[in-house]
Amino acid sequence: MATTTVKSTYSLDVDTVRQLQAIARRWNVSRSEALRRAIQAAAKQQLPAESDALNALDRLQKSLGLTENIARRWEKRVRSERRGSSRLLER
Fold first, then answer.
1. What value, to the nearest 5°, has the Cα angle with vertex 72 and ends 89 and 79?
2. Count of domains for the chain
3. Does residue 28 sit in the same domain as residue 59?
4. Does residue 3 form part of some domain?
5. Is 30:24 a contact under the CB 8 Å cutoff?
6. Residue 1: is its pLDDT beyond 80?
7. Are residues 85 and 56 in the same domain?
8. Is the same domain home to 37 and 54?
9. Is residue 9 part of a domain?
């Protein structure tokens, strides 16, 4: 059974090409095969879900006692400070 391949052109920096060649020699495969294996390995890595990052932010804000009211007051204060500093720059 034939394997479908797609020829593509990519631009890689010299150091990356050298590393790819070294990996291909070490694995005793072509550079294309080494690149395929590296991509497949990277794709299998578990990355934190977006919700994990949001949960971490929620935990941080809660640990700091950041409530909606406190955040709103901070936002108003910062906005006022920014307006004041931009007025100084306009002079």
1. 5
2. 2
3. no
4. no
5. yes
6. no
7. yes
8. no
9. no
pLDDT, tens only, 61-70? 889 888 889 9
The pTM score is 0.49
Predicted local distance difference test score (pLDDT) of residue 91: 62
Residue-wise DSSP of 16-66: HHHHHHHHHHHHTS-HHHHHHHHHHHHHHSPPPPHHHHHHHHHHHHHHTT-
Q: Which range marks the domain in which residue 20 is found? A: 14-44
Q: Give the pLDDT confidence of 7-33 residue by residue, as tens digits.
A: 889 899 999 999 999 999 999 999 999
Domain annotation covers residue 84? yes
Give residue 83's identity as a one-letter amino acid code: R
Torsion of CA 79, 83, 84, 85, to 10 degrees: 100
Mean pLDDT, to the nearest integer, of 35-42?
Answer: 94
Instruction: Looking at the structure, tell me whether residues 54 and 40 fall in a common domain.
Output: no
For residue 59, with 0-12 CB atoms within 10 Å meaning exposed, 13-18 middle and 19 or more buried, which class applies? exposed
